[in-house]
């Protein structure tokens, strides 16, 4: 509650929060199918119809309603973004905590594996994983999740190492607390703030990567709607039907903007060191 | 020096990891390179023909033999033969690399030329309307995916001015510099826009940080002119985060900009790797991923060394 109030009291937090909130509602509507039209129904007589009262954002080459497809696409993109970031955050936190707490060989092994993943260009790694497993929603989730795991591992390991050296951890040990208790109670709880910031920013990247993969035809497969695919399909029609490009483009951009604004605000609120120079 | 040695010693280990990962991953892609190369005609091959093709590309051996041969070849400068191009992998990579390098450099120049002045301007006008304006533009820039911006640029040019970006046969810089630049300027702007936005944000916050430091206050109270305080005292220290960000971003761009190359139909490294993955061109995927990872690590190392040059107080490896 306190965080929510702080976000609403923060200039960019308020805008970011509202954007993300609206998108979440649209995503849910898109996922449960509460769209103005069926996103895959083809209204052949109304092909390439400009935006109108019946079709708010026009129709595409097959006469499908763009607004409904956008809503379904937002649902799709957000599903991939949330699950992939949850995957990365969970895997990264476990690995980062294990590396920091177990130290020595574990630390070395985990961090070298992360170095290998980081040396891979993100989009290429995602492409490779998608080609191996075949394109689809859940493949995108795993691919994007694996790509962002090293970032979370680093975000967790650094602070966890310095927390491990603090007096209160020594004190907990002296009192006979178990390792698992110290790691979850003392380390993890103190990492909630940096993790929250990282999760919000990672959601923006995940949306971007998902859109990029489907733009290349390696994400969500047709006829299901996806923002990247809609944008890619619009390329040959941009002069006759610019709405096919403009609406999906703006939709992707504003969603990323929302998470970036929210992430910045959370960093200002949760990380006192950054307060001096809000960017 | 010690630090440099340790970093260099880690190189082979990380590259070994990358090589194993890419080797295993590309072999897990369903289908093989002969079918991918010949398409439906692969079905017309007699078993003997298929076997001899597999033997020619060395994919008839068990995986560990293939891996061993591949690594052994690399140590002798032989990255193998690309199935799709029928030529040595290294030749194909080095043919594509100049474009990728040029595009990365152009984007970085745009990003620094626009982003740094904008960031410094915003920092010196902190909390004024102009600062707010710069921050809003930078935030929007950072949130605009390259493919959205690329399509918007193409659309604006074609719908508004009736011109199309110079596509067609790509002209290398040495052969036709003017045509080359005209082909790369829009892709570079597309990539440089978000990059410039990040540079703006980081130079602004680094500058703000430095401007509130004691030594800057001292310089000001001694009566040093505002311009000299910014350029002589504050800027060198504010540069460190800018160098880090630009270096890392540059390292990523050297891996090829798959999507921008795709939109502008440029024959760069990114598109080549994408096609190679889709074609199951094992040797080309493996070779180019290793090449990209190596470049990325070198750039990161150079960034670390640049810290020391910019701030002699930093002793690397002592954290």
* Most strands sheet of chain A: none
Instruction: Kindly provide the radius of gyration of chain A, computed on alpha-carbon positions and rounded to a whole number of angstroms.
Output: 22 Å
What global shape of chain A is seen?
Answer: elongated
* Proportion of strand residues of chain B: under 5%
Write the layout of secondary structure elements.
The complex is a heterodimer of chains A (279) and B (319).
Chain A: H1 2-8, H2 11-32, H3 66-102, H4 104-119, H5 122-133, H6 137-164, H7 167-174, H8 179-215, H9 227-233, H10 243-270
Chain B: H1 2-28, H2 33-38, H3 47-56, H4 63-75, H5 89-124, H6 129-142, H7 146-161, H8 177-211, H9 214-221, H10 226-253, H11 258-263, H12 269-278, H13 282-310
Can you describe this structure?
Chain A has 279 residues and is mostly helical. Chain A has helices spanning 2-8, 11-32, 66-102, 104-119, 122-133, 137-164, 167-174, 179-215, 227-233, 243-270. The longest helix of chain A is centred in the first third of the chain and has 37 residues, at 66-102. Chain B is mainly α and 319 residues long. Chain B has helices at 2-28, 33-38, 47-56, 63-75, 89-124, 129-142, 146-161, 177-211, 214-221, 226-253, 258-263, 269-278, 282-310. In chain B, helix 5 (89-124) crosses helix 8 (177-211) and helix 9 packs antiparallel against helix 10 (226-253). Chain B starts with a helix and ends in a 9-residue tail after the last helix. Classes of the chains: A mainly alpha (279), B mainly alpha (319). At the A-B interface, helix 4, helix 5, helix 8, helix 9 and helix 10 of A face helix 1, helix 6, helix 7, helix 8 and helix 11 of B.
């Amino acid at each position: 509650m306190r965080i929510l109030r702080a976000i609403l009291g923060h200039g960019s937090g308020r805008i970011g929060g509202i954007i993300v909130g609206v998108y979440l509602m649209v995503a849910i509507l898109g996922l449960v199918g509460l769209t103005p039209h069926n996103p895959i129904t083809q209204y052949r007589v109304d092909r390439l119809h400009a935006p109108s009262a019946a079709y708010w954002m026009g129709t595409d080459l097959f006469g499908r309603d763009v607004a409904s497809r956008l809503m379904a696409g937002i649902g799709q993109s957000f599903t991939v973004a949330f699950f992939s970031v949850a995957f990365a955050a969970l895997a990264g936190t476990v690995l980062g905590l294990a590396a920091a707490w177990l130290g020595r060989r574990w630390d070395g092994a985990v961090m070298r594996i992360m170095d290998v993943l980081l040396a891979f260009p993100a989009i290429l790694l995602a492409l490779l994983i998608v080609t191996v497993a075949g394109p689809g929603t859940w493949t995108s989730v795993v691919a994007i999740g694996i790509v962002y795991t090293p970032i979370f591992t680093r975000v967790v390991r650094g602070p966890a190492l310095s927390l491990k050296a603090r007096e209160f951890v020594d004190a907990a040990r002296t009192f006979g607390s178990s390792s698992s208790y110290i790691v979850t109670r003392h380390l993890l709880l103190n990492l909630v703030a940096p993790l929250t910031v990282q999760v919000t920013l990672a959601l923006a990247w995940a949306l971007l990567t998902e859109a990029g993969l489907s733009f290349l035809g390696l994400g969500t497969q047709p006829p299901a709607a996806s923002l990247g695919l809609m944008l890619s399909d619009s390329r040959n029609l941009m002069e006759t039907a610019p709405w096919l490009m403009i609406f999906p483009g703006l939709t992707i951009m504003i969603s990323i903007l929302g998470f970036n604004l929210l992430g910045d605000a959370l960093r200002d609120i949760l990380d006192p060191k950054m307060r001096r120079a809000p960017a | 020096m010690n630090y440099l040695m340790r970093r260099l010693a880690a190189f082979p280990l990380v590259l070994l990891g990358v090589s194993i990962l890419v080797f295993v991953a590309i072999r897990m892609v369903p289908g093989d390179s002969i079918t991918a190369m010949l398409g439906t005609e692969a079905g017309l091959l007699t078993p003997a023909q298929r076997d001899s093709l597999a033997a020619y590309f060395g994919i008839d051996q068990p995986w560990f033999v293939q891996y061993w041969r591949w690594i052994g070849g690399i140590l002798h400068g032989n990255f193998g033969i690309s199935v799709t191009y029928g030529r040595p992998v290294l030749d194909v990579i080095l043919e594509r690399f100049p474009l990728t390098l040029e595009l990365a450099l152009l984007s970085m120049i745009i990003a620094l030329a626009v982003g740094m002045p904008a960031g410094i301007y915003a920092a010196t006008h902190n909390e004024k309307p102009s600062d707010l304006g710069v921050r809003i533009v930078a935030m929007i820039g950072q949130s605009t995916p390259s493919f959205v911006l690329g399509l918007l640029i193409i659309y604006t040019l074609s719908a508004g001015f009736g011109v199309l970006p110079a596509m067609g046969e790509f002209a290398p810089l040495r052969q036709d510099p003017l045509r080359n630049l005209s082909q790369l300027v829009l892709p570079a702007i597309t990539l440089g826009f978000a990059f410039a936005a990040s540079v703006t944000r980081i130079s602004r916050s680094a500058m703000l940080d430095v401007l509130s430091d004691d030594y800057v206050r001292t310089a000001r109270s001694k009566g040093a002119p505002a311009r000299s305080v910014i350029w002589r005292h504050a800027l060198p220290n504010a540069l460190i985060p800018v160098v880090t960000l630009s270096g890392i971003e540059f390292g990523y761009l050297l891996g090829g900009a798959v999507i921008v190359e795709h939109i502008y139909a440029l024959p760069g490294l990114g598109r080549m790797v994408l096609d190679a993955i889709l074609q199951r061109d094992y040797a080309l995927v493996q070779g180019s991923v290793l090449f990209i990872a190596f470049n990325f690590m070198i750039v990161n190392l150079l960034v670390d060394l640049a810290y020391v040059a910019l701030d002699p107080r930093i002793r690397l490896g002592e954290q």
